Amino acid sequence: MAITMNHNIFRSVASTTTLVATLVALPLFGAGRAMADSEPDHVFSANVALTTNYMFRGVSQTNNGPAVQGGFDYEYSPWGLYAGVWASNVDSSSGSSIYVDVNNRNMIVPAGAPNAEEIVLEPAGYDGASMELDLYAGWVPNWQAMGINGLDALTVDIGYLRYQYPGTDTNDNNTNEWYIGLSYDVFGYVTPSYTANYSEDFFGLDAAWYHNFGVEVPLPYDLTLHGHYGLTRYNNSPNNGGGDSYDDYSAGLAYSYGGFDFDLSWISRNKTDLCSAPFQCGDTAVFTLSKAF
Predict the structure, then answer these.
(1) How many domains does the chain have?
(2) Do residues 83 and 136 make contact, with C-beta atoms less than 8 angstroms apart?
(3) Which of 25, 108, 162, 229 has the highest CB neighbour number within 10 Å of its CB?
């Protein structure tokens, strides 16, 4: 299938609430979609998803708990312009504690268990916020409308993304990102993609880049195999006001049936010892059910 690019992939896949949301109307790149001649000029769409764990670039945003997510999109088809909003619950239970095994910090244990170590949670550092609200806008060139032939297999997406956390006590959590994404449908057999996200002040730390390399392979019976490799790169080290650079990766299988999309993904990252609570960054299986309207 020709990849339907959707900005939320930037969040989702790249972080992944899951590729499911990506495969549906998915808000991996912008609201890019093949624009048929019969498509109306003004297109409104919506999407909703239930996921067992909201993972963003290899880190759980819900303390390994479930999330309800959804968004609305508007697209002006002749020019390929789009804008939208997307939201999800997040966990800000800072100050509460969990206990992990001192010999295996990915394992949660009862408080009185042997070798138990207390960890004060700082899940995503959202300081009181219980919701993430993303605003975005961008441009996906409509080659046909521009009179350019031979580029139907290429999708380009350029846009802006704003992460907001209503109720947070720290404004640094609210972050701006610019992105550019490319994908190419290779005769319907495989669709590789690349996305670059840049923020001058990534969650109050420092300027940072996120490079996302993805691939989708359509299979029989409405199945899609997908994978991604992401690189978070700060301009400066923690000693100079930056953050710890790391990589995250995922692989999964998506299935469409009856207007619904199902996705089962394995998500992981390296340098899990850098997480305030390592169990939030370990190997994780995530299931997502989503639907686009």
Answers:
(1) 1
(2) yes
(3) 25
Instruction: Judge whether 276 lies within some domain.
Output: yes
CATH of the domain at 283: 2.40.160.40
Pick 85 or 245 by higher pLDDT: 85
Q: Does residue 57 sit within a domain?
A: yes
In a domain, 49, yes or no: yes
Q: Under 8 Å CB-to-CB from 146, ≥6 apart: which residues?
A: none
- What pTM does this model have? 0.77
Over the stretch 95-116, which tens digit does the pLDDT of each residue have? 556 677 777 766 677 777 888 8
What is the predicted pLDDT for the residue at 122? 53
Q: Could you tell me the residue range of the domain that residue 39 belongs to?
A: 8-85+125-292
Three-state SS sequence of the chain: CCCCCCCHHHHHHHHCCCHHHHHCCCCCCCCCCCCCCCCCCEEEEEEEEEECCCEECCEECCCCCCEEEEEEEEEECCCCEEEEEEEEECCCCCCCEEEEECCEEEEECCCCCCCEEEEECCCCCCCCCCEEEEEEEEECCCCCCCCCCCCCCEEEEEEEEEEECCCCCCHHHCEEEEEEEEEECECCCEEEEEEEEEECCHHHCCCEEEEEEEEEEEECCCEEEEEEEEEEEECCCHHHCCCCCEEEEEEEEEEEECCEEEEEEEEEECCHHHCCCHHHCCCEEEEEEEEEC
Which positions ≥6 away from 150 have C-beta within 8 Å?
none
How confident is the model at residue 69, as a pLDDT? 98
Q: Say if 260 falls within a structural domain.
A: yes
Q: Scan for tokens 């899951």, then name that residue.
A: 18
What is the pLDDT of the chain when averaged over all its residues? 82
Q: Name the least confident of 77-86, 128-137, 272-281.
A: 272-281
